[in-house]
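User: Round two. Same drill as before: sequence, then structure, for each protein.

Assistant: Same drill it is. First protein:
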Amino acid sequence: MPLASKPQLVLCVDDELVGLQVRRILLERAGYQVLTASSGPEGLTLFAANPVDVVVLDYAMPGMDGGVVAAEMRRRRPDVPILLLTAYVSLPAEVSARIDTIMTKGEGAPLLLERLQQLLSRRTAS
């Protein structure tokens, strides 16, 4: 009998608390374990202290934007996929280079779940 695999751990970082809670509920219902952070520094603390499998990161946050957070996450653990979730249509090239995929806010839950699964599948295949 095969061992049951443990749920994959998703870290969501966003300063919009309602969106953060909605994502937590969606992801938990889809079978993920979820950590949430409402700021870049809080996200980096959780990232450093937990075996995160994938990150869902907002771009526009006060104090420390998602580009800075992504750069630090890449420095610490370059193997962890990062999905940038933003309301911005275009981002600086250096930010795009630090993330694995991008979604605009409002594209919907099915696409978010699909993109996360793609990122996690690529990670386990390599």
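Second protein:
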Amino acid sequence: MKRIGLYFGTFNPIHVGHLVIANHMVEFSDLDEVWFVITPQSPFKTKKSLLDNNHRYQMVYEAIKNYPKLRASKIEFELPQPNYTINTLAHLEEGNEGSLEFCLIMGEDNLKSFHKWKNYDVILENHQIYVYPRISKGAIAEKFKDHPKITAVDAPIMELSSTFIRKQHKLGKDIKAMLPDAVWNYMDEMNFYR
């Protein structure tokens, strides 16, 4: 059975930090593949600075095309909005004949608020969660510490955000080094985030 790590995000834009995390997860854990699940609209985020779904998909696709264990997924584009992770997982399981095992990849900051997620207990009951370190305030709930379904992966701490990149790009700063070349080229060509 193939073990798939689902890495959710708006990837607005995808940057080298995302790539480092995803690649680390697939190379240094028991995951066989990592799928970037591009979220159309998070119930927790406003949409004004969000690029069109297909442009964000295209940037993820461009960023990972030379990484055979990484994939871009449009699965959430087809689901009613606002969507929740539990629905995406149910949708993926629907067409799965048991040949794939879906796991979640999340930053430590998300684990701290995981108890607020819709049906988080059902997610935890049915899926492994791989957590990468993040510098963030707050504490991880006691019930999630040493949980058999939660694996902490000692990935590099990446303090790089898409928000920072968009903001600095708009100010005319050179942010090229923070993005995979193909993403920078696409962004530049399309004149995004200026």
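The chain has seven helices and six strands.

User: Perfect.
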